[in-house]
From TrEMBL:
Pathway: Carbohydrate biosynthesis; dTDP-L-rhamnose biosynthesis. Residues 188-470 form the RmlD-like substrate binding domain. This is dTDP-4-dehydrorhamnose reductase. NCBIfam families: rmlD (TIGR01214). It is an enzyme of class 1 (oxidoreductase).
Length: 470
C-alpha cells in the first residue's frame, strides 16, 4: 500500500522531507513526482518551478556536490537509490547544520536557496531528478557557493568511501567550511528609493542588515517599462517594494499630468506585477486613501474591502494600479494616507511658516490620520518578515481622526508658537483661485484592524509628531 503524502521538517530551516505515494502493480509503479495543489496544501512552499533537470548516474558510488545554488529546488529519484546530504551554507545560526537521508522513488526533499546539496548513488543506473524555480544561466553560477564533500567539520558519513567513489575534479577541490562565505538572503528590490518612503526603507533595512538593492528613477523609471524590463534578473530578488508613484495630485488634472499619472501609477505597476508574477516573487505596492471618495460619515473608517470610488485622476490611476498589482500571485497592497517623512511634506511646510512668522490658512474639512514613514516602512518590513497573509492592508498612524488644520496647529504648538495663528478654511475656499484643482476625499480615515491583527500597531500620530519634530 502506498504511503500518504507527508511533509516533515528538519533541523535545517526550510529543508523539508516529502513522503511520496508510489502506486505499484505487475507493470511497475507510478507516482506524482510534483503536484503543486496537493503539495502546497500539505505545507510545501509554493515556490514556482520553471525548469526540470535529470542527472543519470551509471554506477553506484557516483558522488556530486556540495553545491548551494541561488534558487529553490525539489529533488527526487526516478529510479535507483541515493544517499542525500544537505548542509546549510546560509548566513545565520544554522550555518553548517547537516541533514542526511536515503532517497528512493518514494521520497523527495525540498532544498531552499543557499542550502548545499549533494548525493551519492547507492545503485547502478540511478536517475536523480530535480525541479528549480529559476532558469539555469552561466551568469547565475557566480552566485553559487560550494563546500568540499570531505569537509571534516560537517563530517558526512558517506556510505561509499570518497576514495573509492566517482567524483569530478571540481568537486574534489571545493573549499572547507571555514573558508566558505555564508550565503546572504536574496535581496529586496526597492523601486523609488529616493522618495520619502524609499529613503526610510533604505534606512531601516540598512540598520537591520537586510540585503536590498535601491533603485531611483535613473535606474528604474516606472513610467517607462521598456527601459528596464530586461535589465534585472528578477528571480534573484526576494521581493519588489514599489515605493514610487506620480504624486502631483493637482497637476494630474492636466492633459500632460493625466498621461504621466497613468503611466507611472497604472501601466508601470502593471509591468512590475507582470514580472513579479512571471518570476513568482512577492510584490509590495503602496497605494493611497485617494482611491475612496470620502463620503463615509466622519467617525467611520474605510475597511480594506470597501468599494473604491476615486474622485481625481490621481486617485483613479492609483485605483487602477491596485488592480494591476493584484495580478502578482503573491502581493501586499498597502494603502496609506497623509504621508510624512524625510523631505518636503506638510509638517515641514507648517514648521517653516511658523518660524518665518507667516500665518497660514489650512483646510479644516478633510479628516484622516497622518502616516509617518517610520511606521509605514516598519509595517511593510513586518509583513515581509512575518510572511503575513497576502492581500490588502491599511497603514496609517493610530490615534484620533483629525483635520489638516488640527495637524498644523499641533506643529505650531510643538515648535513653541501660538496655534491660533493657524486659520481654518474649507477645501473650496482654499482652492478658490487654483487653476488645476483635484477633488479630495473629505474622510480619509482607514480601518487599521487588519495590520494590527497581523501583529503590527503603528504609533499614535500625536507621539509620532513629537518625535519627528524633536
Amino acid at each position: 500500500m502506498a504511503k500518504e503524502l507527508r511533509i516533515t521538517e528538519t533541523e535545517i530551516p526550510g529543508l523539508l522531507i516529502i513522503d511520496l505515494p508510489v502506486h505499484g502493480d505487475n507493470r511497475g509503479w507510478f507516482k506524482e513526482n510534483w503536484q503543486r495543489e496537493k503539495m502546497v496544501a500539505a505545507g510545501l512552499p509554493d515556490f514556482g518551478p520553471v525548469q526540470n533537470n535529470i542527472s543519470f548516474n551509471a554506477s553506484a558510488g557516483t558522488t556530486r556536490g556540495i553545491h548551494a545554488e541561488p534558487w529553490d529546488k525539489f529533488v527526487s529519484v526516478a529510479t535507483g537509490k541515493i544517499f542525500g546530504a544537505w548542509v546549510d551554507l546560509r548566513e545565520g545560526e544554522s550555518f553548517g547544520a547537516t541533514v542526511t537521508v536515503e532517497l528512493g522513488p518514494d521520497t523527495a526533499v525540498f532544498v531552499p536557496r543557499g542550502v548545499g546539496n549533494s548525493f551519492q548513488t547507492l545503485e547502478d543506473n540511478t536517475a536523480y531528478t530535480y525541479v528549480v524555480n529559476d532558469h539555469w544561466s552561466a551568469d547565475a553560477q557566480g552566485e553559487y557557493s560550494f563546500l568540499n564533500l570531505a569537509d571534516e567539520t560537517v563530517a558526512i558519513e558517506w556510505p561509499i568511501d570518497l576514495a573509492e567513489a566517482e567524483l569530478s575534479e571540481k568537486d574534489k577541490n571545493h573549499p572547507r567550511l571555514a573558508e566558505v562565505t555564508p550565503v546572504k538572503p536574496a535581496p529586496l528590490l526597492i523601486v523609488g528609493a529616493n522618495g520619502q518612503l524609499g529613503r526610510e526603507l533604505v534606512r531601516q533595512l540598512t540598520e537591520a542588515g537586510t540585503p536590498f538593492v535601491a533603485t531611483t528613477r535613473n535606474e528604474l523609471d516606472l513610467a517607462h517599462p521598456e527601459s528596464w524590463l530586461s535589465s534585472f534578473r528578477w528571480r534573484s530578488y526576494r521581493a519588489i517594494i514599489n515605493a514610487a508613484a506620480y504624486t502631483a495630485v493637482d497637476n494630474a488634472e492636466t492633459a500632460e499630468g493625466r498621461a504621466n499619472a497613468w503611466a507611472a501609477n497604472a501601466s508601470g505597476v502593471a509591468a512590475l506585477a507582470s514580472v513579479a508574477r512571471e518570476a513568482n516573487i512577492l510584490l509590495v505596492h503602496v497605494s493611497t486613501d485617494y482611491v475612496f471618495d470620502g463620503t463615509l460619515s466622519v467617525g467611520q473608517e474605510y475597511a480594506v474591502d470597501a468599494t473604491v470610488a476615486p474622485l481625481s485622476v490621481y486617485g483613479q490611476s492609483k485605483a487602477a494600479g491596485e488592480v494591476a498589482a493584484a495580478v502578482a500571485q503573491r502581493h501586499y497592497i498597502v494603502r496609506t494616507s497623509w504621508v510624512i517623512g524625510d523631505g518636503k511634506n506638510f509638517v515641514e511646510t507648517m514648521k517653516s511658516l511658523a518660524e518665518r512668522g507667516i500665518d497660514p490658512k489650512v483646510v479644516a474639512d478633510q479628516h484622516g490620520r497622518p502616516t509617518f514613514t517610520q511606521d509605514l516602512a516598519a509595517a511593510i518590513i513586518h509583513l515581509l518578515e512575518t510572511e503575513a497573509d497576502y492581500g490588502m492592508y491599511h497603514v496609517s498612524n493610530t490615534g484620533d481622526v483629525i483635520t489638516w488644520a488640527e495637524l498644523a496647529k499641533s506643529v505650531f504648538e510643538l515648535r513653541g508658537h501660538d496655534s491660533a495663528r493657524v486659520g481654518e478654511v474649507t477645501t473650496d475656499e482654499y482652492f478658490a483661485n487654483a487653476e488645476n484643482f483635484a477633488p479630495r476625499p473629505e474622510n480619509s480615515a482607514l480601518d487599521l484592524s487588519k495590520i494590527k491583527d497581523a501583529g503590527f500597531t503603528p504609533r499614535d500620530h500625536a507621539q509620532a509628531l513629537k518625535e519627528y519634530l524633536q
